[in-house]
Amino acid sequence: MDETYKYDVALSFAGEDRKYVEEVALFLKKKNIAVFYDYFEEEALWGKNLISYLEEIYTNKSKYCVVFISQYYVQKEWTCYESAAAMVRLLNSNMKQKDYLLPVKFDETKVSGVLSTIGFIDGKKKTPDELGNLIIKKLHTSDLKNSELMSIELFKNNLITVLSKDFPPYWVINCEETEQNMRFQYTYHDFLYYLEFVFQMEEKVLLLNGGYTDLFFDTHTFIPSAKITLNFENELISNGQIVNFDFFDDMNTYILPISEISGQIKKELLKKGGL
Description:
Elements: E1 7-12, H1 18-30, E2 35-36, H2 42-45, H3 50-61, E3 62-69, H4 77-91, E4 101-105, E5 121-122, H5 128-145, H6 152-163, E6 172-177, E7 181-188, E8 191-200, E9 205-214, E10 219-233, E11 236-244, E12 254-257, H7 258-272
Helix pairs in contact: 1-5, 3-4, 6-7
């Protein structure tokens, strides 16, 4: 998440459309997207002056605002407050981001301030999960514009730095490196877990293989786990597209800035260790 904002995305909708929107919100939350959805914030909203609180969220605290437009949306007092706050953000000349407002239409209802020239998604033609994936791609595409470029050597050093520190005390970590391979071994409880990276620079591909040995039962598993296609700008890596085979739990293919790939791998590794 961009640390400038509390939320990656805020959802604005009418109660009649909640069933669809809630599925989108749950999908995003499961994908670790910071989403403002009222039912997720019941404790925070309790006792607040909602007009000023929501105005702050839809004007300043969200990177994007998804507006679910329907015949019901224009009939609600609260959605009018939310869309008005989003318009303030959109029209603020100090904001460089001009695609803050992301309309999803369920019908042809017009919302004051939302120009017909703004690109929209037809909510009738997208499942909640499909829309959720589009939101994630929008967020990641935006992140890539400001992502750091890395040489392959710097990326290797980044892998070693991130994947070799800040683990629980009982994890024992070793790393072996050659020109074409990098292999991490993690020992914890009755397991050895392996991460092996195979660099295929001619194809601009990084293969991730994962494996584990159950020391108690003396069994071993080692299988291809993911493929990361590295995208370059000149000689430097800008981002990588992760294609999941086994390692990432319930993770769809998507692009990450190169600086975030190591952290995503570490997060999944910690899950494997029960954390």
